[in-house]
């Protein structure tokens, strides 16, 4: 009976040792090519989980925990492209002078008070940055189209010549005449034949617009 018990225990011990031997062999085989620690041939890793290859390491011996197949690849961030801001466009500024303030009715010669107004404008232009100036003359509806066109052009030229005499560069001043084609009064306003009342109503149409296009504002008069 005692002998039988010893045989059974011996067989059981062999049955346990055999799998352990196979596991150790598999572990040792799996860890070939890496730095291992005795006695169980466990792979030595750093504090960051990195493994060290031995001189015998080959790619066929790759251990997934040390050399994962899907190792993340660092991708450089795409450069940030900052679009250049478009250059600021010069902002036009327009000053409208009453034609009656600059000229006597139906005339193209400057009145004394009109010269004072243009003197003030010339002083402001001398301290401003601008590309060009456009002086545009306008008339009311009384008179023929051709007469009003000529009158508007003469008044614009008078303003230009006066500004040139005040040291405003001639090359930067353009003139235009629009005659009666661009009224600012409403179409149904100022109705009736020529009279003092109707002429007073049409006064806003008799004007010279001086438009500056540049980068520095000119104070309104």
TrEMBL record:
Keywords: Cell outer membrane, Membrane, Signal. InterPro entries: Bact_OuterMem_StrucFunc, OMP_bac, OmpA-like, OMPA-like_CS, OmpA-like_sf. Residues 90-216 form the OmpA-like domain. It comes from the Bacteria. It is found in: Cell outer membrane. Residues 1-24 form the signal peptide. The keyword Signal applies. This is OmpA family protein. It comes from Keguizhuia sedimenti.
